[in-house]
Design goal:
Blueprint: E1 2-6, H1 12-21, E2 26-30, H2 36-42, E3 46-49, E4 75-78, H3 80-88, E5 92-94, E6 101-109, E7 125-131, E8 134-137, E9 143-148, E10 151-158, E11 163-166, H4 178-188, H5 197-212, E12 217-220, H6 225-238, E13 242-248, H7 256-267, E14 271-276, H8 278-285, H9 291-311, E15 318-320, H10 325-334, H11 351-355, E16 358-360, H12 368-377, H13 382-385, H14 405-424, E17 433-447, E18 450-463, E19 471-472, H15 477-490, E20 494-499
Parallel strand pairs: 1-2, 1-3, 3-4, 4-11, 12-13, 12-15, 13-14, 15-16, 18-20
Antiparallel strand pairs: 5-8, 6-7, 6-9, 9-10, 10-11, 17-18, 18-19
Bound molecules: xanthosine-5'-monophosphate.
Function: Catalyzes the synthesis of GMP from XMP.
Pathway: Purine metabolism; GMP biosynthesis; GMP from XMP (L-Gln route): step 1/1
Domain GMPS ATP-PPase: 195-387
């Protein structure tokens, strides 16, 4: 196994991801936890030093234990990791003085090095730099294998010891061929690349068991991919120690509550409490049309309701959440930051402290596509794993204006027809998210020989990679025409259908 010593870079998890893509097992450990005894017990086959925000020039800045250099295994130092390695082994690191580099740079090769095999497609390669300090003299035994205009020591290596030090970040997207470096590094360290999601499952299960012991665990199950995979994994680890609470706020899609509870309780034998709180939620939302007020009401009630049900579970000590790695990065880099709230997102944040619970987050290291792979591994049906995201406040934010039961009913029916159309045309998996919003206007129409005065609705379908930016999906006119006809014919209460062609930005995906 490979050890990543984390010096606090924002992108350390991306290194782990690149390695998982190569089917190599790795663990990330913060530098504070890595000492000589740890190294001896871990017995890594290779070590990577991550980047980090500190400066090796400062006293007390993060260091690996000296013993790491005596293990006789390959070491790759990245950015701050490069500087640490140079500094520890007898080179010199200096402060900026106009040599700081942030962003795109181009590295030119010098000589040949196994680590770089197949990397340089042309005479230079794009890389991503992000450093204030720089190496001004390399350590004895090292040679230069790549330079950039601002980094004469962009790539250095001590080939006798298999120590490599690079100034840039090969793990990020903006170093387009960076994965090749990792591939060469692990090959050189003798990894065979036989580690799989199946192995991850085993490790995650062992880790959950160790963390929670015999204590009861509760989990808010929404039916979304993340909470579903987390629940299935926990169930496999601790069986009936896990109780899931499914909060039905009356803002779910057609048949959704029955489907989710049916699958987890009846099909997979999980303990699921179906908290039917429809009257409570819809009652409190009566007469409310301001989007943020709706979100706050729903978020607040959700916490109250969850707490009420959780309190009934004797001795619960842990709360399980399907937090993914991107959520972890977001909450770290934006907490207290200057970004404005566009929409207050609804989740169970704040719950653990309020209830005195400890968190179990078995998906914290994974990205969305890896969670899907794990879900498949756990045997969840493809229909669950491939589902479009659904927001916590549910249909409330697809019903601009006041929320009423009849409007929700119309919305559910229209949405079901629309999604059925998309599936029939084989488009579901091409689309990031598709749904209907019911508009707070009624318009005049004519059906048969009669006048109608019914609601208008908007269809939404977007492509996106992460929900942060999005573009509308280019349906054919035939598809749109056929879908509009079906909705108007099959859904009483709607007599006009529009298609929302706004991208994000400037729009958002949801209507509120
Ligand atoms: P927007 O509308 O902000 O949505 O462009 C981006 C993505 O986030 C989802 N979304 C939410 N998810 N709780 C959630 O769990 C929320 O409160 C929430 N609001 C929006 C939205 O469905 C889209 O995928």
């Amino acid at each position: 196994r490979l050890l990543i010593i984390d010096f606090g870079s924002q992108v350390t998890q991306l290194i782990a991801r690149r390695l998982r893509e190569l089917n190599v097992y790795c663990e990330i450990h913060p530098y504070q936890n890595v000492d000589a005894a740890f190294l001896a017990a871990f017995a890594p086959r290779a070590v990577i030093f991550s980047g980090g925000p500190a400066s090796v020039i400062d006293e007390g800045s993060p260091r690996p234990p000296r013993e790491v250099y005596d293990l006789g295994v390959p070491i790759l130092g990245i950015c701050y990791g490069q500087q640490v390695m140079m500094h520890d082994l007898g080179g010199t690191v200096e402060r900026g003085h106009g040599t700081a580099e942030f962003g795109r740079a181009f590295v030119q090769p010098k000589g040949t090095l196994g680590l770089l095999e197949g990397w340089f497609k042309a005479d230079k390669e794009q890389v991503w730099m992000s450093h204030g300090d720089h190496v001004s003299a390399i350590a004895p035994g090292f040679e230069v294998f790549g330079t950039s205009p601002n980094a004469p020591f962009a790539i250095t290596a001590d080939t006798a010891r298999n120590f490599f030090a690079v100034q840039f970040h090969p793990e990020v997207h903006h170093t387009p061929n960076g994965a090749r470096l990792y591939e060469n590094f692990v090959a050189l360290a003798g990894f065979s690349g036989d580690w799989t999601m199946g192995a991850y499952r085993e490790q995650a299960i062992a880790a959950i068991k160790e963390q929670v012991g015999d204590s009861p665990v509760i989990c808010a199950l929404s039916g979304g991919v993340d909470s579903s995979v987390a629940a299935a994994l926990l169930h496999e680890a601790i069986g009936d120690q896990l109780t899931c609470v499914f909060v039905d706020h009356g803002l779910l899609r057609k048949d959704e509550a029955a489907e989710v509870v049916g699958m987890f309780r009846d099909h997979m034998n999980l303990k699921v409490i179906h908290a039917d709180e429809v009257d409570l939620f819809l009652g409190k939302l009566e007469g409310v049309s301001d989007p943020e007020t709706k979100r706050k009401i729903i978020g607040g009630l959700f916490i109250d309701v969850f707490q009420k049900y959780a309190n009934e579970i004797e001795g619960a000590e842990f709360l399980a959440q399907g937090t993914l790695y991107p959520d972890v990065i977001e909450s770290v880099s934006f907490s207290g930051g200057p970004s404005v709230t566009i929409k207050s997102h609804h989740n169970v944040g704040g719950l653990p402290e309020k209830m005195g619970l400890k968190l179990v987050e078995p998906l914290r290291e994974l990205f969305k596509d890896e969670v899907r792979a794990l879900g498949r591994e756990l045997g969840l049906p493809a229909s669950f794993i491939g589902r479009h995201p659904f927001p916590g406040p549910g249909l409330a934010i697809r019903c601009p204006g006041e929320i009423t039961r009849p409007k929700l009913e119309i919305l559910r029916e229209a949405d079901a027809v629309y999604i059925d159309q998309i599936r029939r045309h084989g488009l579901y998996d091409e689309i990031w998210q598709a749904f209907v919003a019911i508009l707070p206007v009624r318009t005049v129409g004519v059906m048969g020989d009669g006048r109608t005065y019914d609601y208008a609705c908007a269809l939404r379908a977007v492509t996106s990679v992460d929900g942060m930016t999005a573009d509308y999906y280019p349906f054919s006119h035939e598809f749109l025409g056929e879908t509009a006809t079906r909705i108007i014919n099959e859904v009483p209460g709607i007599n006009r259908v529009t298609y929302d062609i706004t991208s994000k930005p400037p729009g958002t995906i949801e209507w509120e």
